[in-house]
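Quick one:
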Amino acid sequence: MANLKEKVFKNIDILESLTSKMLLVLNFIIKQNIKESKEALEIASGSLNSAYHSYNITKQTTNCASQNSEPSKVYLNSAKNSFNNTLKIYKNAVDECITSIRLLDRKTEMFIKILEVKNKMENLKNLFDDSKI
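Output:
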């Protein structure tokens, strides 16, 4: 029986070591995802603000000039297209962030499940420690 107890303890120790390593890796991945999502959103937001500002300046410039002139219409359309394209990029970045958050949610669920397994192993080890095997 003592040999069985040693084997169980050895397996529990190996499992605890693995779960601890898995928790560290998952923790790192989760932190990295949060950081990357935040950076992507900040960059997209900055681009959107810049494009909107550029569009407004072009609009004001064309308003000052003759709005009916052909060059003014071309500049205004160009600025409008640039803003719309940047808006699409921003929307894509927001979608990427949402996807990252969903992945993060799944990784967090894994993290919680691994913690539960680790707690069960510790309970099992305590059960063996308390027994007279």
